[in-house]
Amino acid sequence: MSLANPKVGFVSLGCPKALVDSERILTQLRVEGYDIVQTYDDADVVVVNTCGFIDSAVTESLDAIGEAIAENGKVIVTGCLGKKPEQIREAHPGVLSISGPQDYGSVMSAVHAALPPKHDPFLNLVPDTGIKLTPKHYAYLKISEGCNHRCSFCIIPSMRGDLVSRPVDQVLREAEKLAMGGVKELLVISQDTSAYGVDVKYAQHEWRGKTYQTRMKALCEGLSELGIWTRLHYVYPYPHVDDIIPLMAETGANGMRKLLPYLDIPFQHASPRVLKLMKRPGAVDKTLERIQRWRSIAPDITIRSTFIVGFPGETEAEFEELLDFLDEAQLDRVGAFAYSPVDGASANALPDPVPEEVKAERLARFMERQADISAAKLEAKVGTTQRCLVDALDGELAIARSMADAPEIDGLVQIQNGFMAGLKPGEFVDVEIMGSDEHDLFGEVAFDD
Ligand code: SF4
């Protein structure tokens, strides 16, 4: 019998939620004694975790499957595109198995069939926190699966089902282990973070001798006990979001904010009629007043949002309403997409599609308007001192992020004297900001005289 461990290659595509699925599968593979290898040549079988959200993601996923078949031959497909097995089989009839998102059991069965595990109990030594694909000092914390909403442009509920919240004590215990393992920043993810616990009627559980509700605010209070950064993603503008803003202004015993003053809150549009057509959850009116109120409580709050332009039926006047909203809201970070029909979405049946060239023109106008706002927001930070978390060293520079920067989607802080200051990844440091461009900040560690 061969002494070598069976070897699995892994390709992880898609959003942070898919990344968490990949981490779970990788953890299970390691528990069962599989080695995870970096090249197709070294792998005995390859798992591809796909994304199927928009057409370009489908193409990227199908290309990745094709590459894995060409380079290795033995390919197991999972993830969101796995909900459309016929599409995968049509393009790549040779795949060994297809399963949908979070179907860890099917992936493991397919791996067992293609490549039986080697039985060795001493191989079962993996950290409790599992295998992480992110650097050691930050981690995604998934608090729920699925979604109870039915936004007309989205097919996630049909792929991932209704909301299922993880019990709050389970989430807090996972967060605690991550913090003990060296994680300095938790990125809370779900499809709708503000809906956390609705499905379990906010059930109460004990953690560290205290009772917590399975609810966004209680979760944030629990996470604030860990004394590290906690960043919330995918929060929808429900009234109870106001309840967590005071935590963003409060400082804990170790000088760290109890909750990062950062909200990733996808508004998608500003016209009430378009929002209704989109069937968006949350309050659609008084958004501007609420943003002002949040800023009066936590003045340095960073608001990141995403928008769709050219949604079916969007008139020029409604689009201009959106531009006016940008001017008034002065959001820090904004992503925008031209509407693109997703197979199976109910918005496809809406009348008055916006012509492609009008969509492209509106997207360009939107991005131009926001670019000036984002650049001015960054420029206003020149001369301030920002608490940053170092991600990496690059020659003389340290690459870090401030409280305003989520990994991968926001900007960076380049610390010019990072190497000289002896900075290391995962370290917090106060940086004097000396310059800015459209996306990033530049600064130096302040040395005492
Ligand atoms: S809230 Fe809307 S966009 Fe988000 S996952 Fe649910 S249905 Fe999709």
From TrEMBL:
One Gene Ontology cellular component annotation held by this UniProt entry: ribosome
UniProt organism field: Lysobacter arenosi
Gene3D superfamilies: Methylthiotransferase, N-terminal domain, Nucleic acid-binding proteins, tm_1862 like domain
Subcellular location: Cytoplasm
Name the UniProt record assigns to this protein: Ribosomal protein uS12 methylthiotransferase RimO
Limits of the Radical SAM core domain: 133-376
InterPro entries: Elp3/MiaA/NifB-like_rSAM, Methylthiotransferase, Methylthiotransferase_CS, Methylthiotransferase_N, Methylthiotransferase_N_sf, NA-bd_OB-fold, Ribosomal_uS12_MeSTrfase_RimO, rSAM
Main location, first listed in the record: cytoplasm
Catalytic activity: L-aspartate(89)-[ribosomal protein uS12]-hydrogen + (sulfur carrier)-SH + AH2 + 2 S-adenosyl-L-methionine = 3-methylsulfanyl-L-aspartate(89)-[ribosomal protein uS12]-hydrogen + (sulfur carrier)-H + 5'-deoxyadenosine + L-methionine + A + S-adenosyl-L-homocysteine + 2 H(+)
HAMAP family, sorted: MTTase_RimO
Annotated binding of [4Fe-4S] cluster 2, by residue: C147, C151, C154
EC code: 2.8.4.4
Short name of any one Pfam family annotated for the protein: TRAM_2
